[in-house]
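Q: Hi! First time doing this. I have a protein sequence and I read that you can turn it into a structure. Is that right? Here it is:
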Amino acid sequence: MTLPIIHDCDPGNDDALAILVAAGHAGLDLRAVTTGAGHLAFDRTARNGAIAVARTGRRDIPVASGAEGPLVRERLVAGVLDFDSALDPERPDLDAVSLDARHSSELIAEVVAAGEAATIVTTGPLTNLAMALQRRPDIAGRIARVVTLGGAWGLGNKTAAAEWNILCDPEAAAIVFGAGIPVTLIPVDGAAGAGITPSLIAGAEALGGPVGAFAAELLRSLVTTFRPGLFGPSHMPLNDPVAPLVAADPTLARIVPARVDVELAGRFTYGRTVIDFAGKSGLPANAEVVIGLDEARVHRALLDAIARLVK
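A: Yes, that's right. Below is the predicted 3D structure, encoded as structure tokens:
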């Protein structure tokens, strides 16, 4: 049995690596890749998503371009994209699949409505999914689960309070968390438990072929962006690829129920995910939250998924 998923993302090198994992994993059936504005403008994320899908060899997977910006707030500019290889800077030398004519939110809604209940894996802002739910409220009952990389129970990674993916569109995140859909949240604090190690990069390189070389290039480029923080991990977290891996196998993570709400009004805390593990609010839990990862198993699962794409 494979789990049907839609991968909504903002590629980005980390998202591109997650696309490779989602396409190659034996337990996943990747039905669509949808992109939108996030770390890069919407046209660049769509192009990068199309490149990543072409590299997998799975040209049957539709790739759509979506949200040009957030639902309400002005679009943020990441300001941290100092990658020196892979998809940043722009790579016109790499093959790309043709983009689907539909908007990402339309493609999400149509794929969900047409088939068995799908899991939505998100590794970027939640704008496309929120728009799909606004377009077609009926699809909420047909989404099996949302597995999303975003938020934090501690410090933010963009402001003192907020993590990037949620801060890019807090109103969209609030719509998703309030839609009554089962959610697995992978906060950056929890995702930090699986890092990009020299052995992981070597393992990708050892796979060989264009896919293995591309995966290794993506991993190396991500390491160049790492800036150690006072309380953060001592290595670059793997981040986005963890989302499809946990969707396929939740036993890779330690997961606990919690109440998750998104701050929409605070002067200093706008975009913060308020994760109530102890039930202090009196509100029912609305998410399963990843608080730890088995790094060795995550690494093996990632390499196994990419190995299935190597010709």
